Amino acid sequence: MIGRVVRGWRAHGLINYLFGPGRHHEHSDPHLIATWDGCPELHQPLPLPTPEGEPVWFDVGRLAAALTDPAVAAGIPQREPTPVAGAERQQGPVWHCSLRTAPGDRVLTDQEWAGIVADVLDRTGIAKRGDPGGCRWVAVRHAVDHVHVAAVLVRQDTLRRVSPYRDFLRVREVCLDAEREFGLRATTPADRTAPRRASRAETEKAARRGWPEAAARDRLRQVVRAAAAAAANEQAFLQLLAADDTIVVRTRRDVDGRLVGYAVADPRDTETADASPRERDRLVWFGGRALAADLSAVRLAERWAGAPDPDPAPVDRVLERREALDSAAAAAEDARRELPVGGAGAAHAVGDVLLVLATAVEDAAGGPLTVAAAEFEPAARHPGRGQPSAWSQASADLRHAAWRVARAGRFRPTNPSSGPALLALLLALASLVAELAAWRDQRGQLVAAAAARRAQESLQTAAAPLRARWPATTVPKVAAGPARTGPSATTSTSRLDRVRRAGSSVGGQPARPHGPVRS
C-alpha cells in the first residue's frame, strides 16, 4: 500500500474533484466512508440534475462548508495569499492523503478502509482517537483500490492550527501495518532518500510551455547526477555543469573559498505567470539536496574523497580505453566477491559506473545501458543519507574505474580493440547487479531489489549483440591496467577470466551472496 500526502488551500475544490467524474471519467460511485463525527451518511452529497449521458456531479457545497467551519471561524484564508518576495511560502490548511493498494491486492471493504483512515489520522495527530476537538476530516472512496482523506488542519475546540510532524513517515507506517494485517503486497519501508518528485504544477508547467522533455526538476537531476558520476573532484564537476548550456549554475563558498553549496536552474524555468512583473523573469533554482540526497555539496565532497583521482591519461587513447574497461571489470568482480561487507558502497558506485558507461557507449541517443542506469538508481541509494559514510576498497576501486571510463571518452562496441573488453565489463556488472538484488532482498529493501533486477535485464539486453559478435572463446585475455591502487592492486589476468566465466551464466539464476549477510 502506498500513501501520498499533499497540502493545499481550497477544500471546496478538493472535495468537488473527489466527488466529480475525474479527469478521464475514472471515478465511479464516489461516496463517504467515514467522517470526523462518525456520521458519513448525514454528509453524503446529493447528485445534481444531469442530462442523460453526461457525467454526474454532486452538490458538495454543504459538505465543504461543514469541513471548513473551524478554519473560517479562526479567520484562516481559504485561498493562498499573494506571495511576498523573499518571504517563505506559506502552507495551506488543507491536508490531502491518498491511500492506494497494489494491482492484484484483494479489494478492501469500506469498513476496512475506514479503520486504516482512522489509524492514519490518529498517528499523525490530526484527529486522535477519543479526541472530539480534533480536526474535521472526511474519507472519500471513488474507486475499488484507493481512498482519499481530506482534513482541515484547525482544531474544532481551540481553533488553533495543527502542524502534523513527519506525517509522511506516519502514513508510511500505517501502510506497512495494513499490508501485514490484510495480507496485501509488501512494500519497502520509507528510507527518506527518494528524490523529490516534480509537483503537478511543475509537470503542468512543462506541458503548458511545450517542453518536449521532463519537468525542469527531473531534467536537472539527470544532468547533475551524470556530472557527479563523471567528475573526480569539485573543479571537474563545476566544469561539466558549466559546459552544459541548457542549465545555469551558481555556487556558494565559505570565507576560505570552499564549496558549501550550489544550485542549478533551467533558463526557461521562470516564475509562474501570476507572479508580480518583477518576479516573473526570476529563475526557479534547485539546490543539490533538493534534487537528491546524495547530490548535496557535502555528499559530493564525501564521494570525491572516497577514491583517488585517476592518473594522467596515457598518450595512447586506444590503450586508455582498454585499460579503463579492464580495470572496471576487475573492480566489479572484486566488489561481487566482497559484497556482504561492502554492499552499500558497491551499489552506489555501480550507479556511477552505469551512468558514465551509458554516456560513453550510447550518448544522447540512449539505449539499454541508459535504461539500466535509470532503472538501477533506486538500488544505488543508501537508506537514511543517500550514500554510505564509508567505502570499502572494492567500492573505491569501482568509483575510480567510473572516473577512468568517463575520462576515456566514447566507446564503439564494434571496435575490436574495445568491444571484447566492453563485453567483459557488461557481464561483470550484470553478475554484480544480480547479487546486489539478492543482497537488497535479504534486507527487506524490496524496491531497491526490484530496481536491480530490472537493471540486470537491461544489461543482458546490452550484452546480447556483443556476445553474438564476440563469443566467449574469442575474448582475449588482457590484464587489468596499472591504475588500481591500495590493497586490492593485485589484479591479474586470471581474475578477468573469472569475470568472463561468471558473466557467462548471468542469463540463468543469479549467484547467491557470499557468506552471511550482515546488517
From TrEMBL:
Residues 199-210 have a biased composition (Basic and acidic residues). Residues 89-184 form the MobA/VirD2-like nuclease domain. Residues 187-210, 473-519 are annotated as: Disordered. InterPro entries: Endonuclease_MobA/VirD2. This is MobA/VirD2-like nuclease domain-containing protein. It comes from Kutzneria buriramensis.
